[in-house]
Amino acid sequence: MDQSLTSLSFDTHGTGLYEITDEIADWLSHAGIETGLLTVFCQHTSAGLLITENASPAVHRDVVRWLSKLAPEGDGYEHSDEGPDDMPAHLKALLTGNSLTVPVAQGRMLLGTWQGIFLAEHRRRPHRRKIVVHVSGE
């Protein structure tokens, strides 16, 4: 069994979903693993990862609106060290999660036709987010 690990950085420009599928696929194509398992991990507590539709931007807008309803700003949170979007961002990150697992075959992720991997930025201001990707297999 072989494995490969790297850290990728992504600049965000505020709240939204940022597709990172191509960057991960590019790295994977050079990792030398034909069959295995890919793990994608977000190293932040105010951003998350998800697999969702990559064809319709309306899906992304709906997801962001839905998350904002579940964890609205100004809801009387005790924690607000970095501003009014701080605690809601932590709650949204709990909902979107910090890691994904994707099977790999023929050196490619086995995502569905309309699936993409997205970094979910839950803060309003720009950030540089680090994502660790690890693949193991043969």
UniProtKB/TrEMBL annotation:
User: Pfam families, from UniProt?
Assistant: YjbQ
Q: Tell me the first and last residues of the signal peptide.
A: none
Q: Which InterPro entries match?
A: UPF0047_YjbQ-like, YjbQ-like_sf
Q: Which family does it belong to?
A: Belongs to the UPF0047 family.
Q: What is this protein called in UniProt?
A: Secondary thiamine-phosphate synthase enzyme YjbQ
